[in-house]
């Protein structure tokens, strides 16, 4: 059986191989594309940063809502996590270990970034999850094992987001704190399920921290 997403491309842009000091893995939302999230991330572009954007099959990482039982979203979820791993492998091949890579996702992509980091805890350059959180009906802070080793994590969500409840984002923050992450959570009034300029400012600050390290 073909693994979902396995034959989809990874769009690479920004600094060429050998000239990058930091990387960003960009994870698009449902109904979007790798090129679309690459365009969305334009405010993050700067000298010395390479971007790796895997594409989801049929523009969705998994078929059902993020708060459904995880097994209901299989085998798509496992295939999606494997594509995040493949993007990080491309970064390593370019001389960028995980601690110099920012995981950045919006909506379904944010859920995927959270799920990958929680399942593969280690020091990352950072995690930015906008309008998303960990998957499953209920999240418990002791559900995952390991340490994110003070990885900075930024979680942003609209107070009136009609797809991602604020409570899920706060539960995700607790789970990351239990994994030794340095978590910042911001709830924005009146933005719905959208990305804000302030969220890009937070992501830029994390990226600057990687470049300065």
From TrEMBL:
Where is the Phospholipase/carboxylesterase/thioesterase domain positioned along the sequence? 15-205
Q: Which UniProt keywords apply?
A: Hydrolase
Q: Which residues form the signal peptide?
A: none
Listed GO MF terms: hydrolase activity
* InterPro entries on file: AB_hydrolase_fold, LYPA1-2/EST-like, PLipase/COase/thioEstase
Q: Which family does it belong to?
A: Belongs to the AB hydrolase superfamily. AB hydrolase 2 family.
Q: What PANTHER family does this protein map onto?
A: LYSOPHOSPHOLIPASE-LIKE PROTEIN 1 (PTHR10655:SF17), LYSOPHOSPHOLIPASE-RELATED (PTHR10655)
* Full protein name: Dienelactone hydrolase family protein
Q: Which organism is it from?
A: Salarchaeum japonicum
